[in-house]
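Morning, I've got a small favour to ask if you have a moment. I'm working through a protein record and want to make sense of it properly. The fold is given in discrete form, as structure tokens running alongside the sequence. Can you walk me through what the tokens say about the fold? Thanks so much in advance, here it is:
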Amino acid sequence: MTQDKPLTGSALVEKVKELGNLGKEEKARACGYYTKTKNGVERVNMMKFLNALIDAEGIELDSTSEGQGRGGRSASYKISVQSNGNLLIGSAYTKQMNLQPGDEFVITLGRKHIHLKQIGVAEDDE
């Protein structure tokens, strides 16, 4: 059972950078990627840590999917309406566009499309 929720995303990347010269197991432990057995022995989960770090950096290892199907966390350029009626645009797209928390958009609805225009960005930059 993990003591704290493991860090993910930019928080994980920042923490790893802060930890500088520590070994990878110490970094994984400090970022919450460990469990304790019934006997109280700590086990570092390096695979989960490294996969989370790869995801956080936006590195796509499964390039063979080429947008076909889900392909793990890679961008498929398809989304579905959720059961609550929302459309969720995942982090793969916001990272690719270098968007930051708080960026705002104007939404324009067409017959069968949605256009997002970022507020405060010149049309040449789009």
